[in-house]
Amino acid sequence: MTAGVLALQGAFIEHENMLKELGISSVELREKSDLDKPFDFLVLPGGESSVQGKLLHDLDMFNELQNKIQDGMPVFATCAGLILLAENIENDENSYFKTLPVTVRRNAYGRQLGSFSTELDVKNIGTIPATFIRAPYITSAENDVDVLAKVDEEIVAVQYKKQLAISFHPELDHDLSMYRYFLQEIVHKKSSSEIYP
User: Fold this and answer.
1) Which of 16, 48, 90, 169 is catalytic?
2) Catalytic site residue 154?
3) Is there a catalytic annotation at residue 171?
4) 169 catalytic, yes or no?
5) 73, 98, 162, 181: most buried, per Cβ within 10 A?
């Protein structure tokens, strides 16, 4: 099992380290030729969504990655990755992959609460630590999007088909719960905790 980790900008190495703990190898997606390497699912890390979006176009990677997601490749997106997937961005004239039928708000918590940590109750998982850094949240989601978690009634984690998108950074809290859920429920479609203990 191999992850394709978008490695243009942001906290991609931390994701690779977390996946390694679960026995998952990674290939870094830095240029178009990297998309020819075999990988089973995609990881879109946090960082700066507008920078990542521009680089995806400049490096001619955008269309092929969008096609992979549209064709059903599992994808795990955190923070900026959520923004890349969103169909609509409330406070940005740009949009990117548009494969996730939600509307997001960039930097939704503002400067004063730009970064914070909390204990988050996540559907099907339980209570986990969650670190938010200049995070977005989802202001609206279509009916077929499964809402997994909220902070102060704002949506911060969703699942849609084979896309798992969250506002926070599990790689920074060294918590494997979201990774296990993604691998078991979306990549393998098995709920046995024996797969990734």
Assistant:
1) 169
2) no
3) yes
4) yes
5) 181
